[in-house]
Design brief:
homodimer; about 220 residues; Arc Repressor Mutant, subunit A; 2 domains; DNA-binding
DNA sequence: CTAGGATTCAAACAGTCGTTTGAATCACTC
DNA sequence: GAGTGATTCAAACGACTGTTTGAATCCTAG
């Protein structure tokens, strides 16, 4: 008994899936890194698919639980009045960023993994939908409460933009450098307020201003 | 001679890479779909890696060319004065969205592929960096010109947020439904103005307001 | 018509993949 | 200490991977 074979597989799989992606990581690589026998992964998990699901669930359920708890707390503190836009954003964004800053290794691994699975095959994507779909719905509804005058169509798109900005930042924030030579951007305590301020401004802009047509009707040709 | 073997391989590869990802698509699947011999891909391209690079380059160079041309046109029209934030956004965003609406099949394929490669292995990611890094730098500098008072750190992050919102929208806009049952969001002519308005508001918000600490110092515990 | 380079083809190479098997070993109860 | 179920192990299964080979075929210039 290798001192928690099941957990060692999970840890190694998380790290390797994050580094190389799901399809590109073989079970032999995982079991070798974990120091366990190849057949152990089929004994403890039934297949590679289930292993991935468990890897995701371990972290995602934790992050989502924190999100809901923060939102509930803000709702109690608001005593019936609608929760501020800023607080909804914070409840949604803070847990993941907090994990990233407090446990950099685990956090980076997890966010890298989310970014990958988000884009990989159908199976990883379906797992993501299952794990994160409900929580997005909750926050979408909370945002509608906080912005009652925003048309539903605009709200849906803006929620979409928010998720994109968040996911991209979590995925690439650490290693991407916009301005070459300036070094990679740092995920420090200033990032979360910046992101919240950016997004809240976007959510609050009048939807009418969005219906002006872009200035250039003529656009350059694309060859098919 | 199969009426353009080289091009048929490129087309099939683009479609299959977009649908299943790079690592999960075998050369046999590609050549079978293209109706050509397996060895043809090594004859016309030297390896699977080069094939991917060519697939990306064909579309990316077109989109990036259009971006630069639009930016140049707006600069000429501004006659020396700084280009509006809205116009910079439009020059950056419009070409991809235009491709998506004008050639839905090709556009969807390409944006799906970008989304995937963005997150897949190291090789796809390096190709993406090579193809899109320079263009991001150009627009980053244009944004700095348009917002001279915005600190460089804030600008870099906001550029990051912008790219995230764009990429996520291109990748998932067509099939994601935030509110279950309401049907998928539609990429119509209203989307681009909405995205531009959302992002411009975020870019214009005073950076000072971003330095207020989030309200909740205490955060729930994550187990490592 | 023919020589010769460009292209296509079936076949094989040397691996790796996820999964299964059946025996060996462990921990623990009676 | 024997028996029992949980766990680990080496080995193999059949299928699939990117790449290479060398002969067959096509197209075109002389």
């Amino acid at each position: 008994m290798g001192a928690g074979t099941k957990k060692r597989i999970l840890d190694a799989a998380e790290r390797l899936f994050a580094d190389r992606g799901y399809a590109s990581t073989s079970l032999r690589t995982i079991t070798k890194a974990a120091g366990v026998n190849l057949a152990a992964v089929h004994y403890h998990y039934h297949s590679k698919d289930v292993l991935l699901d468990q890897v995701i669930d371990r972290r995602a359920s934790e992050v989502n639980r924190m999100r809901l708890e923060m939102l509930d707390r803000f709702r109690r503190e608001a005593r019936g009045r609608p929760v501020t836009l800023e607080k909804i954003m914070e409840a949604f964004l803070a847990p993941a960023f907090h994990m990233l800053r407090t446990y950099p290794k685990i956090g980076q691994r997890f966010t890298r993994l989310m970014g990958r699975l988000h884009a990989e095959g159908d199976l990883p994507h379906q797992i993501m939908r299952r794990r994160f779909g409900p929580i997005v719905k909750v926050f979408h509804d909370a945002l509608q409460e906080s912005l009652p005058k925003l048309p539903p169509g605009d709200l849906a798109w803006r929620t979409h933009f928010m998720i994109g900005a968040m996911a991209h930042t979590l995925r690439w924030g650490q290693q991407m450098e916009i301005t070459p030579g300036a070094g990679p951007l740092l995920i420090d305590e200033g990032l979360l307020p910046r992101l919240i301020a950016f997004l809240c401004a976007g959510f609050r802009v009048a939807p009418e201003s969005a219906h002006r047509r872009p200035s250039s009707q003529k656009i350059l040709k694309v060859k098919p």
